[in-house]
From TrEMBL, chain A:
A family per Pfam: PadR
InterPro entries: Tscrpt_reg_PadR_N, WH-like_DNA-bd_sf, WH_DNA-bd_sf
Gene3D superfamilies per record: Winged helix-like DNA-binding domain superfamily/Winged helix DNA-binding domain (1.10.10.10)
Domain of life where this protein originates: Bacteria
Protein name per its UniProtKB record: Helix-turn-helix transcriptional regulator
SUPFAM superfamilies for this protein: Winged helix' DNA-binding domain (SSF46785)
Domain Transcription regulator PadR N-terminal: 15-89
TrEMBL record, chain B:
Cellular compartment(s): Cell membrane
Source species of the chain: Dyadobacter pollutisoli
Domain ABC3 transporter permease C-terminal, chain residue ranges per copy: 388-503, 776-889
Keyword Hydrolase: no
Lineage of the species this protein comes from: Bacteria, Pseudomonadati, Bacteroidota, Cytophagia, Cytophagales
Residue ranges of every copy of the MacB-like periplasmic core domain listed in the record: 109-327, 535-699
Main localization of the protein described in the UniProt heading: membrane
Keywords: Cell membrane, Membrane, Transmembrane, Transmembrane helix
Protein's membrane topology: Multi-pass membrane protein
Name under which the protein is recorded: ABC transporter permease
Matches recorded under InterPro entries: ABC3_permease_C, MacB_PCD, Macrolide_Exporter_MacB, Permease_put_prefix
Transmembrane regions listed in the UniProt entry: 110-130, 381-404, 433-456, 476-500, 520-544, 773-792, 825-844, 859-879
Coiled coil: none
GO cellular component: plasma membrane
Length: 111, 896
């Protein structure tokens, strides 16, 4: 289980790809992340993360259509691979298990 | 353009192209698309300017290794995109190929390296020289605030101004102008015998200076108090070197030196560092002016003008402002003095066509720009000329390189073709050739540096400088060298790179490249350029040589052979005449004369106005000579009218002998003998007159750069030298006996002598140096140019081997083959000769203008230069041509 090499940013990106599929490409994901987190997210950062994820076989990509707003350039569409999906689910499961174990008293203390 | 760039759907273009260049080609489309899309969306949501600002951030975020790294097998030619800027593997490959090529073509490689190395070495030497010339006086901390006051004075149509003024100028300027922070003055003090105990030296670099000297110039003290230095009379400051000379390692401060024959005591109050060689005035002792500077009322700005005056100005002050104010004061001061001496108002003086005034020269300009200074002798012209020579040498070496590489292009064309077929694009081929030439340039730099090290002592001797290779270690110069070498490599490699990379693979591989005539024309053009420079330099060298010979062989109007000058005879004090009488007893000595005046160089600088009795308003500026009756016969001068001074006539004490020019200037052509000049007026108003007793034929009492001026000779007790006319080939014995006699009179004083003809040659030392430098550089240029020519012939001959073979088989003679091969090279040389002649003619006439007596520039100089060049070029060409012509046609034709 190579669980350890999924970074936090990578994880968010991977989740975003899964959420936006089949229309997940760099710019869309960057914008989505900006909307969700309220922070500035550059396309470069997202792109770099996706490249790493692709190298780790959590993502695959195909050329998409060219649009005018890209200056007639094609976009690259990303999709989560089966491995990527499993990793996401596992990560989520780990988290959920921890969440479940947090006693309501503690959570009350936070609020 | 602007409006297009501002179009909202298009991000800032310059940045886009930078990104496009830097990121890896396989990611380019996607990334540029992303950037554009984000930009367009931001324009839509947030407006153009915010989008543009964000675009920077967005782009910068893409500049990370992940996007810049190329894929391993990424050849841009297949994707039709830009070639990668840097590819480690390819550069290794280029280097390998370059080394192989260089090794295979030994002749052209060595020609290239030698040529470039000599070019670079020359450049480095000249760079060192120029750097030194430009550094003069800049070691002074306040260098940009110091100016020197110069005198403009024209008397009887002759410039007699200079950098010297009377003793009062500095004081007056300091008092009159509050903007003068400090004024200082100093004068040179001929030579002086200085002794401490039994050690005694002749010091010839004494400066008599004000105590304000140290406030103006930056002089680091090793011992003593700079604030109190030179404030007291009879004190002296020594340089480190001088102190060591007299005292070794002892502390000299407080010790007392005795000066001159009177043994005047001078107390040492301080030791300063040696004067840097790049200072326009040099000294080894600074003598206090205090006590000597009573500013007598009769001393003004003109009277006894032998003080250099320097002013320290406030920071950021334009000296031109002061110059006009000083001019007004000078008008009053100098004008008054002119009126006093010449009885002419400034207006009358100017109406006569003469002029006077003062000007200021910034300290840092003195060495290179000052026309008044005789000592320091820098010349901005030489800096320009040498820089031009350096540039030309380097250019010629580059031209060689371009020429040879183009010529060898045929050999390389196959390689280019194959590379292209295999997918190289132009950019890569260019890179390859540029790397090759950079490699060559680097090797040449190393060889050049070795050459510089070897040549530096010789160069130093030639230029009289003390340059050292250590200077090259200065970061600025070292960086300059590296950048220079890279530039040379790129420049030299640029033409071949572009030329070779443009070959069409199809025609190259079919072997059709030879047909292009274009390259030949360009090559001829380059050869013309090389020989243009070479011929111009040869012409300059030949002229300089002729002028030098002319000056040295010129009849100067007196004998300078076999004349011995015994110096410093005033050390003998009262025994001078006795000594003279003793040495002329020798059968080898014909005659001896005691006089301070040696008619060589600028031994006398006094210009004095003389007036005739009948025309007292008409002053004539002349030089004075004080001689004894033996002077004229000893030097073999000719009397053309009247008689020489004689001891038989008591009245000769108030007699004068004039030279022809003086006679003419005074308007006495008819019968000058017996005419009278006005002498001085004594306290009772009684005038004394000097009677003309003879006229001596004009002789050159200065150098041949100046016209002979009026000269008045007096019978007078001026001593200092004994001129001895000898008649012997046993000079060493004669000198030894003279030395013995000298020592019997003055055992402490050194016996020193010189030969008049040696001194005569010394006067022309700067011309001699010019000539030597020119000879050196023109031989180097011709060498490099011929090196190139040699390389070119080698390849032409090789290329035409088959043609020559066919011609020989069909019955061509060796001579006709030779003519065939040489013709191609002679044509550009002849064109170069025609082009270079007028340019050189103009240049040498500029140079010759400095001389009053000069050679005429006639066609023979150009013919000679042409012949020399053509001769050397033919010799160069013939070696390869003869080889080609003599080759057995069977061999050359069988090669395929």
């Amino acid at each position: 289980m190579r669980r350890s090499d999924l970074g936090e940013f990578e994880e968010v990106v991977l989740l975003a790809v899964a959420a936006l599929s089949p229309n997940a490409y760099t710019v869309a994901i960057a914008e989505e992340l900006e909307r969700e987190t309220g922070n500035i997210v550059t396309a470069g950062a997202v792109h770099a993360a996706m490249q790493r994820l692709e190298q780790k076989s959590y993502l695959r990509s195909i050329w998409g259509e060219a649009t005018a707003e890209r200056g007639g350039r094609r976009k690259r569409l990303y999709a989560v691979t089966a491995l990527g999906g499993r990793i996401l689910e596992e990560t989520s499961a780990v988290r959920n298990r921890f969440w479940d174990r947090i006693s309501p008293a503690i959570r009350l203390e936070w609020n | 353009m602007k409006s297009e760039e501002r179009r909202p759907d298009r991000p800032p273009r310059y940045f886009t192209s930078l990104i496009a260049m830097l990121i890896a080609p396989h990611l380019r489309e996607e990334i540029l698309g992303n950037l554009q899309e984000r930009y367009v969306r931001r324009v839509h949501n947030q407006g153009v300017s915010k989008a543009r600002r964000r675009y920077w951030l967005e782009s910068l975020a893409y500049l990370r290794p992940a996007f810049i790294k190329r894929q391993k097998n990424e050849y841009s030619s297949t994707t039709g995109q830009l070639a990668p800027i840097y590819s480690h593997d390819m550069i290794r490959n280029y280097l390998k190929i370059a080394l192989r090529n260089l090794r295979r073509q030994k002749v052209s490689t060595s020609i290239n390296i030698i040529g470039l190395a000599i070019g670079l070495a020359t450049c480095i030497l000249i760079m060192l020289y120029v750097q030194d010339e430009l550094s003069y006086d800049r070691n002074n901390e306040k260098a940009d605030r110091i100016v020197r006051v110069g005198l403009k004075l024209q008397l009887n149509g002759k410039d007699v101004g200079g950098s010297m003024l009377g003793i009062n100028a500095a004081r007056d300027l300091q008092q009159e102008f509050p903007e003068v922070v400090k004024a200082t003055r100093f004068r040179g003090q001929g030579s002086e015998f200085v002794s401490y105990g039994t050690t005694s030296f002749k010091e010839d670099k004494l400066l008599v200076a004000d105590s304000s000297f140290f406030a103006v110039f930056t002089i680091p003290f090793l011992k003593g108090d700079p604030g109190r230095a030179l404030t007291e009379p009879n004190t002296v400051i020594l340089t480190e070197e001088t102190a060591r000379k007299y005292f070794g390692n002892q502390d000299p401060v407080g010790k007392v030196l005795s000066f001159g024959s009177e043994k005047t005591p001078y107390r040492i109050t301080g030791i300063v560092r040696n004067v840097p060689p790049n200072s326009h005035f040099q000294y080894n002792m600074l003598v206090s002016l205090a006590g000597d500077d009573q500013n007598p009322s009769d001393a003004g700005w003109l009277y006894r003008m032998n003080y250099h005056t320097y002013l320290l100005l406030p920071e950021k002050y334009d000296y031109k402002q002061l110059e006009s104010k000083i001019s007004r004061l000078a008008e009053k001061q100098i004008g008054g003095e002119i009126q006093q001496f010449l009885k002419l108002t400034p207006k009358q003086f100017r109406e006569k066509g003469d002029d006077f005034g003062v000007f200021l020269e910034p300290l840092t300009d003195i060495h290179l720009y000052s026309r008044t200074e005789t000592g320091s002798g820098g010349n901005i012209m030489y800096v320009y000329i040498l820089t031009a020579i350096a540039a030309f040498m380097l250019l010629i070496a580059c031209v060689n390189f371009m020429n040879l590489s183009t010529a060898t292009a045929v050999r390389r064309s196959r390689e280019v073709g194959v590379r292209k077929v295999l997918g190289s694009v132009k950019g890569q081929l260019r890179q390859q050739f540029l790397i090759e030439s950079l490699l060559l340039a680097t090797v040449a730099l190393v060889v050049g540096l070795v050459l510089v090290t070897l040549a530096l002592p010789f160069f130093n001797e030639l230029t009289g400088k003390a340059l050292s290779v250590n200077l090259l270690a200065k970061p600025v110069i070292a960086a300059g060298l590296v950048v220079g070498t890279v530039l040379v490599g790129l420049l030299a490699g640029s033409y071949p790179a572009f030329y070779l990379s443009s070959f069409k693979p199809v025609s190259v591989l079919k072997g059709r490249i030879m047909a292009t005539r274009g390259s030949f024309n360009l090559r001829s053009g380059l050869v013309v350029f090389q020989f243009f420079v070479t011929i111009a330099m040869i012409i300059a060298t030949v002229t300089a040589d002729r002028q030098l010979r002319y000056m040295q062989s010129q009849k100067v109007g007196f004998d300078r052979e076999q004349v011995l000058v015994i110096q410093n005879t005033n050390m003998l004090r009262n025994n001078e005449a006795v000594f003279r009488d003793q040495i002329i007893q020798s059968p080898h000595v014909i005659m001896g004369s005691i006089s301070g005046q040696v008619p060589v160089g600028n031994s006398v600088m006094d210009n004095t106005t003389v007036m005739s009795k009948e025309n007292p308003d008409q002053g004539v500026m002349s030089r004075f000579y004080f001689v004894d009756p033996e002077y004229i016969p000893t030097l073999g001068m000719r009397m053309i009218q009247g008689r020489n001074f004689s001891k038989k006539f008591q009245t000769d004490a108030s007699a004068v002998v004039l030279n022809e020019t003086a006679v003419k200037a005074l308007g006495w052509q008819q019968n000058p003998i017996g005419k009278e000049l006005i002498g001085h007026t004594d306290d009772n108003g009684v005038k004394t007159y000097y009677r003309v007793i003879g006229v001596v034929k004009d002789f050159h009492f200065e150098s041949l750069r100046q016209k002979i001026g009026p000269l008045v000779m007096f019978l007078g007790g001026n001593s200092g030298n004994i001129l001895v006319k000898t008649r012997t080939d046993k000079l060493p014995q004669l000198l030894a006996s003279m030395k013995q006699q000298w020592e019997s009179f003055a055992p402490a004083a050194p016996f020193s002598y010189s030969f008049l003809d040696d001194r005569f040659e010394q006067v022309y030392i700067s011309e001699q140096k010019t000539e030597q430098v020119l000879t050196l550089f023109s031989s180097l240029t011709i060498f490099i140019a011929c090196l190139g020519l040699f390389g070119l012939t080698t390849y032409t001959a090789e290329q035409r081997t088959k043609e020559i073979g066919v011609r020989k088989v069909l019955g061509a003679s060796v001579t006709s083959v030779l003519a065939l091969l040489s013709r191609d090279f002679l044509k550009p040389i002849l064109i170069a000769l025609i082009l270079a002649s007028p340019v050189a003619w103009w240049g040498i006439n500029q140079w010759l203008r400095e001389f009053a007596y000069k050679v005429t520039v006639d066609w023979s100089i150009f013919a000679l230069a042409g012949l020399v060049t053509v001769g050397i070029a033919l010799l160069t060409v013939s070696f390869q041509s003869i080889k080609a012509a003599l080759m057995n046609p069977v061999k050359s034709l069988r090669s395929e």
